[in-house]
Write a structure and sequence with these properties.
12 helices; elongated; about 350 residues; about 40% helix; alpha/beta; 10 strands
Length: about 350
């Protein structure tokens, strides 16, 4: 994966440290209301080492680029900003900046999140320096709900969060999520190259953390040092279990993870793939078609981790096929067939 063709989009004349200890990979799009808070909390970090901030601004339709240019002009020794003249997409934007990071350690943050501790970087570096067996480390984070739900802020990790994370912890269920992106610090040497399939995976976090965990356990630091904003413009609202494209991409991703790990975790991954195939039954295109839902259930059955018995089929039909709409369609279909064959009710 070579993204050097985007290097000409570098803004200004930065002179960041040649060998920084840490690189902050900051990806931003439409974050004019948040980016200043994000940058201020990065620049306020108290460290005994050099760090750089690699920013990818993906041609936002608001003032995000202008704000970043102002910061880049003020802190050319810290900030290296790429201002895109056209939108390149979240994955390309991320990977270009990610591979441009020069630090021994990398932290990834999105422009609407921010850190709440000025010692965050120092604490994580100290931990990784003293624990060479760890591929990465992460800490707790607070979720702030700005999605109109009115929910109170909450913490991502529970009090009994395990101190060490293995690959199996990331594959116990689909969409396993307990590591806030902005909380993770990883060793660059372990991810300086990534498999080609990573580029085609819509999710970056899940496969990236599995790749890291395969190289060494990921440590948890029981301290809350960042905020994750859950808002209507965030990436968490771009994916839908009603979208065939999204579901097929998840099937692709977990299948590739299975290949990458040489099927070591196949017993965990097969049920996940089965669940995603079941989700295909309820995609928008199949909502009002009883026959299509039956067809996709049949396709999903081929991916079941165990042989389905009669009771299993009954349960699956009840849960995934017989929606009110499809049940009505089925009854109408049966009525027509009865009439065709001259069968009286």
């Amino acid at each position: 994966m070579d993204f050097s063709y985007l290097n000409h989009q570098l803004y200004g004349n930065p002179h960041t440290a040649k060998q920084p200890k840490v690189s902050i990979c900051l990806i931003t799009y439409k974050h004019e209301n948040y980016i200043q808070t994000c940058l201020d909390n990065i620049l306020n970090q108290k460290t005994d080492f050099d760090f750089e901030i690699i920013i990818g601004e993906d041609h936002s339709p608001d003032q995000t680029a202008s704000i970043i240019q102002t910061y880049a002009d003020r802190f050319p020794d810290k900030i290296k900003a790429y201002i895109r003249p056209e939108n390149v997409g979240a994955k390309v934007n991320f990977l270009h900046c990610f591979f441009d990071c020069q630090g021994e350690y990398i932290v990834h943050i999105e422009g609407d999140d921010y850190w709440t501790s000025t010692d965050k970087l120092q604490k994580q570096v100290d931990f990784l320096d003293s624990h060479p067996e760890a591929s990465a480390c992460f800490h707790n984070a607070q979720i702030i709900y700005e999605d109109g739900t009115g929910r109170e802020p909450s913490l991502i990790n529970p009090k009994d969060q395990a101190p060490w994370i293995q690959s199996t912890d990331l594959l116990k269920e689909r969409e396993a999520w307990f590591m806030a992106t902005a909380s993770v610090m990883m060793r660059k040497k372990l991810v300086k190259t990534l498999p080609d399939w990573f580029f085609h995976s819509k999710s970056g976090d899940i496969p990236l953390y599995v790749i890291l965990a395969e190289e060494g356990p990921i440590a948890y630091l029981p301290e809350t040092m960042s905020v994750y904003r859950k808002n209507e413009g965030g990436m968490s609202y771009t994916d839908s279990n009603k979208s065939a494209a999204f579901i097929y991409n998840r099937i692709f991703m977990y299948s590739k993870i299975n290949e990458y790990t040489h099927a070591k975790y196949q017993d965990l991954i097969k049920p996940i793939l089965f669940e995603y195939h079941l989700l295909l039954i309820g995609i928008t295109e199949n909502e009002h078609s009883f026959l299509k839902r039956c067809f996709y259930l049949w396709k999903a059955s081929a991916h079941s981790p165990q042989k389905l018995q009669l009771e299993d089929w009954k349960k699956l039909f009840k849960e995934h096929v017989f929606t009110p709409e499809s049940l009505l369609a089925y009854l109408n279909f049966r009525k027509k067939m009865n009439r065709f064959f001259g069968i009286r009710p």
